[in-house]
Amino acid sequence: MTDGKTVNVLVVGIGGQGIILLSDILAEAAFESGHDVKKSEIHGLSQRGGSVISHVRWGTKVHSPVIMDGQADFILALEEIEALRNAHVAKPGGMILVNDFRSLPASVVSGAAKCPENIESRLAEYASVEKVPATSIARELGNIRTSNIVLLGALSRHLEIADAFWQAAVKKHVPKKYADLNLKAFARGRAAEQHPSCTVMI
Q1: I need a labelling partner for 120 at 20 to 30 A (CA). Which of 26, 88, 97, 101 fits?
Q2: What is the largest CA-CA distance in the chain?
Q3: Side-chain half-sphere of 168: how many Cα atoms within 13 Å?
Q4: Dihedral sign of CA atoms 199, 157, 37, 68 in order
Q5: Is 170 within 8 Å of 189 (Cβ atoms)?
Q6: Per-residue confidence at 182, pLDDT binned at 50, 70, 90?
Q7: How far apart are CA 42 and CA 20, in angstroms?
Q8: What is the pLDDT of residues 91-122, one digit of tens each?
Q9: What domains, with CATH codes, occur in the chain?
Q10: Regarding beta strands 90-99 and 101-103, do their DSSP bridges make them parallel or antiparallel, or are they unpaired?
């Protein structure tokens, strides 16, 4: 995916899931591997679990930080409904890596709306889908907040960025006392297989 063409990665989720940290580490690793990198974020009601979206683009020369609809090589989704909400940004032949986590909107909890069904098959209408047990792995590691780094590790399998750059980027952007935990989370994500279960938060 890094053969001279611009690589487009859209990172989506809800406030509190570490979307910005994930995208910072991704951008850092791409930059240190010799690419021109552009990044931008859109914050919803992040303190209330609203949508958070980050665009990360890199290549020989990148002029705009924004990924247009139908142009994302990868969508990293830390929450399933956000994956579906942004699936139209994936390009044909792209990939959606989606965490095993769902946060039910207030409208669904109140009964005013129905929860989306068949999310994985609906995502597959836009791109290939890889379901990653990021939240499950993070829980096993003892800190659910590392779900973002687990998902990043899963993405790293599909990118030609040397492991040394990933390691350095993680160490640079997480507090020193949590570096080892996050490096372990990254390694677990890199080795993770697809997983059928889903953690649901109300």
Answers
A1: 26
A2: 50
A3: 12
A4: negative
A5: no
A6: very high
A7: 10
A8: 999 999 999 888 865 545 555 456 678 898 99
A9: 7-105+117-201 (3.40.920.10)
A10: unpaired
| Distance separating alpha carbons of residues 82 and 167, to the nearest angstrom | 28
User: Coil, strand, or helix at residue 190?
Assistant: helix
Provide the Cα torsion 117, 121, 122, 125; round to 10°.
-170
What tens digit of pLDDT does each residue of 71-95 get? 999 999 999 999 999 999 999 999 9
Tell me the pLDDT band of 202, cut-offs 50, 70 and 90.
Answer: very low
Residue with tokens 């705009």: 64
Give all strands (DSSP E) within 70-174, no chain letters.
72-77, 90-99, 101-103, 128-132
Indicate if the alpha-carbon torsion angle 20, 25, 29, 32 is positive or negative.
positive
Q: What is the pLDDT of residues 40-60, one digit of tens each?
A: 988 665 455 688 999 999 999
**Residue type at 180?**
D
